[in-house]
């Protein structure tokens, strides 16, 4: 196989550039390694000095000091008074009844009921009235306006505590 003059010149130029550039690249890499090793040696010397004293203090290189973490976090719980019956509440407009009605089968009819949302601690009061139907999965039915004062409508059904 014979190479043309143009191809031979290209190979010679590539070989010359490689032999000239490669030593400079290798020298620059070795300079970086030397500076890294001196920094590591300095840091280990400081740590050895600290351990000789017996106290192992953290070295803060800059910025604010770190917050000491004790492994616990503050958790906010809604205030709740669990004196009453727990139920699952849903909503209805009660065929355009007044906005203060609700239906709890265990409570006496006509009595004021206090309802507390267990998810967020909000409370509301309503008057217990009779209702023939109940949605599936719910054990209490609130008027839409009463339910909105406890939670968003998309959250239905919600766990509640009912007391009277």
Give a verbal description of the structure.
- With 164 residues, the chain is an alpha/beta fold.
- The protein has 2 domains: 54 residues; 79 residues, RlpA-like domain (Barwin-like endoglucanases, Beta Barrel), CATH 2.40.40.10.
- Helices cover 34% and strands 20% of the residues.
- The chain contains 2 helices and 6 strands; from the N terminus they run αβββββαβ.
- It has a 6-stranded mixed barrel with strand order 1-5-2-4-3-6.
- A hairpin with a 5-residue loop joins strand 3 and strand 4.
- The longest helix has 49 residues.
- It is elongated.
- The model has no long low-confidence stretch (mean pLDDT 80).
Features:
alpha/beta, Barwin-like endoglucanases, six-stranded mixed beta barrel, 2 domains
| Main beta sheet | 6 strands, mixed, barrel
Helix content: 25-40%
Low-confidence stretches: none
Instruction: Specify the structural class.
Output: alpha/beta
H/I helix tally: 2
Structure summary, number of beta strands: 6
Domain tally? 2
**Overall geometric form:** elongated
Using only CA atoms, what is the Rg? 39 Å
Order of helices and strands: HEEEEEHE
Q: In percent, how much strand structure appears in the residues?
A: 15-25%
CATH topology term of the largest domain: Barwin-like endoglucanases
**Quaternary form:** single chain
**How far is the first residue's CA from the last residue's CA?**
103 Å
Highest CATH level, the class of the largest domain: Mainly Beta
CATH superfamily of the largest domain: RlpA-like domain
Q: Mind telling me which CATH architecture of the largest domain this is?
A: Beta Barrel
Nearest-integer average pLDDT: 80
């Amino acid at each position: 196989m014979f190479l043309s003059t143009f191809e031979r010149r290209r190979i010679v130029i590539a070989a010359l550039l490689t032999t000239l550039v490669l030593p400079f690249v290798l020298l620059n890499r070795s300079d970086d390694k030397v500076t890294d090793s001196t920094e590591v040696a300095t840091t280990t010397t400081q740590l050895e000095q600290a351990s000789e004293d017996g106290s192992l203090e953290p070295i803060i290189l800059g910025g604010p000091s770190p917050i000491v973490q004790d492994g616990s976090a503050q958790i906010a719980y809604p205030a709740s008074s669990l004196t009453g019956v727990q139920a699952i509440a849903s909503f209805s407009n009660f065929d355009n009844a007044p906005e203060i009605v609700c239906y709890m089968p265990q409570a006496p009819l006509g009595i004021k009921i206090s309802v507390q949302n267990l998810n967020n601690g909000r409370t509301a009061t309503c008057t217990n009235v009779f209702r023939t139907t109940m949605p599936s999965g719910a054990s209490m039915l609130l008027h839409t306006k009463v339910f909105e004062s406890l939670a968003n409508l998309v959250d239905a059904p919600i766990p509640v505590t009912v007391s009277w």
